[in-house]
Amino acid sequence: MAWWQLSEAELEAIRLTLLVAFAAVAGSLPFGIGLGWLLARRDFPGKTALETALSLPLVLPPVVTGYLLLVSLGRNGWLGRYLEQWFGLRLIFTWKAAALAAAVIAFPLMVRAIRLAFAAVDPRLESTARTLGAGPLGTFAAVTLPLAWQGILAGSILSFARSLGEFGATIMIAGNIPGETRTISLYIFTLIESPGGIQEAGRMVVASILIAAAAMAAGEFMERKYHPAERREEGP
Question: I need a surface site. Which of 5, 15, 172, 175 has the fewest CB within 10 A?
């Protein structure tokens, strides 16, 4: 097989990786926006503890995060048992578990970018909207969100890119099941463990680099498209 030709197993790993990354971003984005706004605009007891807890996945070994998810969401976990009993929902060793692991690992990057975006919004603009009769939700939707959209986009792209390469937490909570949870990183890991796998893994390494680069380029394109004037001002 030529180096540029991907097998069905490799294509399936790419499909699963994209599915997991998109699901991770889509599922965590509403929480990221809510927490980003809360941390940027409100002071409350326990704020430092919340910030510390949100940042832990950045510094903990991913396998530790995966272990915590496993003991929490397993069939006998304090949360997993109730999800299965009440809703018939079993996450462990499914692609949904891989998406959850990716979301948890990438969530701090998303929240940090969104928090900075909300902090940069001028409160006077929101106050003006209030004086014109807009309510809190209307002001948030019509003023705050549009002004913070670049940070939200940046956080989403960072989260997506980080989700593409998630490995440690994923293998703990989702396993390495072909066609179900074997993403690109797990596929590469499997190949390297087999004889001659280092050479075969080259195609998937290139594919992962191209996908990540495409995600970053798409974000840059969208920013240039919707804010061309700002880009011209930044130029020489």
Answer: 5
47-51 LR contacts (CB < 8 Å, sep 24+): none
Helix (H, G, I), strand (E, B) or coil at 42: coil
pLDDT tens track, the chain, 236 positions: 555 677 888 999 999 999 999 999 999 999 999 999 999 998 999 999 999 999 999 999 999 999 999 999 888 888 888 888 888 888 889 999 999 999 999 999 999 999 999 999 988 998 898 888 888 888 998 999 999 998 899 899 989 989 998 999 999 999 999 989 999 999 999 988 888 778 778 888 888 899 888 888 877 776 666 554 444 444 44
Lookup: tokens for 141: 């939707």
Query: In this structure, what token pair is assigned to residue 90?
Result: 């079993």
Alpha helices (runs of H) in the chain, residue ranges in sequence order: 8-41, 47-59, 62-73, 80-87, 95-120, 123-131, 136-139, 145-164, 168-173, 184-192, 197-200, 202-226, 228-234
